[in-house]
Amino acid sequence: MGKVICTGFSQVTQDREIQNFFLRGKQLCKQISTTIYDILEENDVPLGMSSDQNLTKSTVAPFSEQFMLYVIGILSGLGLSGYGAGLSTTMRRDISAMYASFITKTGAFVEDGLNLMIEREWMEQPPKIADRKG
């Protein structure tokens, strides 16, 4: 789902930096999906169909770029929650490492999206902890 949404949003945005962010999200989703599908296939688990066929060629934005970035941030946060839940319940070392990798990559992606929103003044910078050492 994330790959399709990032692809669709990248088609309709006018801002090149935001478009590149969505394309990066698409690639991240593709990497994660491929990794998961490889493990499922290796273990003879049946694979479901992709939802890519539902994507249109529209270039008309249904939402503002601000809202699209916000949606991607929320969905990425949900993904992180899922990876954390998966990590906490697996007993296989290889799967734990896979989830940890997903968390690291998705966390960096979310942070970059947040920084894009802060740069455009669409979101305030989150509060920081006071530096009590200096």
Automatic annotation (TrEMBL):
Name the record gives this protein: DUF3231 family protein
Record keyword Transmembrane present: yes
One Pfam family matching this protein: DUF3231
Key words of the record: Membrane, Transmembrane, Transmembrane helix
Domain of life: Bacteria
Segments traversing the membrane: 67-88
Gene3D superfamilies, sorted: 1.20.1260.10
